[in-house]
Amino acid sequence: MKYVKLKQLIDDMNLEIINSASDINGMKIYSSEISRPGLQIVGYFEKFVPERLHIIGNAEWHYLEELSPEKRYDKIDKFLQFPITALIVSRELKIFPEFVELAKKHDRTILRGEGTTSKIINSVINYIDLELAPSTRMHGVFVEIFGVGVLMTGKSGVGKSETALDLVTRGHRLISDDTVIIKKVEDGLVGKSPEITRHFMEIRGLGILDIERLYGVGSVKNDEYIEMVVELESWDKSKEYDRIGLDEQFTKILNTELSTVTIPVRPGRNIAMIVEVATRNFRQRALGYNAAEELNKRIFKQVKLKKRARE
Q: Which are the catalytic amino acids?
């Protein structure tokens, strides 16, 4: 089964560690289901699933605050006897001394987050769902252009990285160079960079570039939905390239079809500008306007008018 390590979630979500269990580095999360243990705090443990992440918000915290120290100790003691994955306290609420004492006694992990309860729950669920999603890796360059995630593919040396660098200088954002990690989520595909190469780019003749350092934080992004594929290939005189655009191409990744355009590369062509225009055209089509179909209608209309005139 796929899993997310608890320590990885803590680091990536910027959660404060109040008490660290002895197995914190090896603790694994297999589901994004999160519980608010209000019923358990008042003593109802039927249908309780301790293996989940648990989060305490305002309601649970204020209930515990109103109890006497003895009763609070008893409630928390009964709850932490169960092998919970971890307990998160939201809103940077004060940690009761009983939590720390009993977490040490039962060897449980207690965490604290600064966001609201609902915000932390949503962020944790989205994070775990993304990490557990079906995934693959592809050779290519992933950029965000006009808010659209564009995956550029093609053989090594065709000019993907150089095109991406040109796009960055035009104000667009790099997500990944050379290798793209693609994960399937409910509403599409999300692409990101391997952590070790994040925000770095290789340009032949220059070597490795740190795009964030060179162009600022606005020039990079950690992840984005993939909406379009641009395939770059060396110009082939014997090949007939699409000159109208009526027939849409698709690339299938993780059983998801993505709109695709093939752009032939040769000296003198401004590939970055063409990719920009292809992205604008993609957005137009998504909004219901297709320039090729509009031209086709005009031609048919003109043919009909000439035919009537001859009659």
A: 139, 160, 178, 243
Q: Where in the chain is the domain with CATH 3.40.1390.20?
A: 4-132
For the record, the structure tokens of 176 come out as: 């990944």
User: Given pLDDT bands bounded at 50, 70 and 90, which one contains residue 171?
Assistant: very high
Which residues make up the CATH 3.40.50.300 domain(s) of the chain? 135-294
DSSP state of 52: S
DSSP secondary structure code for residue 290 in this structure: -
pTM of the model: 0.78
The fold of 4-132 is 3.40.1390
| Bridge partner residues of 155 (DSSP) | none
Q: CB pairs under 8 A, 24+ apart, for 63-72?
A: 63/38, 64/96, 65/96, 69/98, 72/96, 72/98
Give the pLDDT of residue 251.
96
- Start-to-end CA distance of the chain, whole Å, equals 73
Least confident of 90-104, 190-204, 233-247, 291-305: 233-247
Model confidence at 293, pLDDT cuts 50, 70, 90, reads: confident
CATH number of 135-294: 3.40.50.300
Number of residues assigned to the chain: 311
- Among 23, 77, 76, 86, which residue's Cα sits nearest to residue 53? 86
Q: Which long-range contacts (CB under 8 A, 24 or more apart) does 37-40 make?
A: 37/79, 37/87, 38/63, 40/78, 40/79, 40/82
For residue 292, the one-letter residue type is A
Share of the chain above pLDDT 70, in %: 100
